[in-house]
Amino acid sequence: MKLDRLDKRILREIQRDGTITNLELAERIGLSPSPCARRVKQLEDAGIILGRVTLLDPKKLDLKLTALIQISMDRHTPDRFEKFEEQIRSYAEVTECLLITGQSADYQLKVVVPDMEYYQEFLLNKTLNLSN
After folding, report:
1. DSSP letter assigned to residue 62
2. Chosen CATH of 5-45 out of 1.10.10.10, 3.90.1150.10, 3.40.50.2300, 1.10.287.110
3. Distance (Å, whole) CA 44 – CA 49
4. What whole-number distance in Å separates Cα of residue 64 and Cα of residue 106?
5. Tens of pLDDT, residues 47-105
6. In which order are the strands placed within the sheet that holds 65-71?
7. Taking the domains of the chain in order of start, what are their residue ranges?
8. CATH number of 58-129
């Protein structure tokens, strides 16, 4: 799908505010609501819009410590990476999981937890138990 100027404006607006209504979106980009809704649907059907998320304020949830953890794999196979990522997805504390290159590690995890004690428990009870 080739994106035109209006498609790109739609994407910018919904990325800025995933809760925007179709009416608000249409007003912001200068379209009437029906064509705007059709364009959004086309962008979804084309797989350009994958979904919408809600961003939470970690501090208001008492998640005051953010840490980066680097993980090295003992085996470098697609199957092994897939299993690792599946395990990581089950950990609510992990907000990002990046496959990295040019480092001594294979993955970098971003975790958000309440405090250092919780972080230490996370390291001992979850990351050390990863089957890598």
Report:
1. T
2. 1.10.10.10
3. 5
4. 26
5. 999 998 888 899 999 999 999 999 999 888 999 999 999 999 999 999 999 999 887 89
6. 65-71, 107-113, 94-99
7. 5-45, 58-129
8. 3.30.70.920
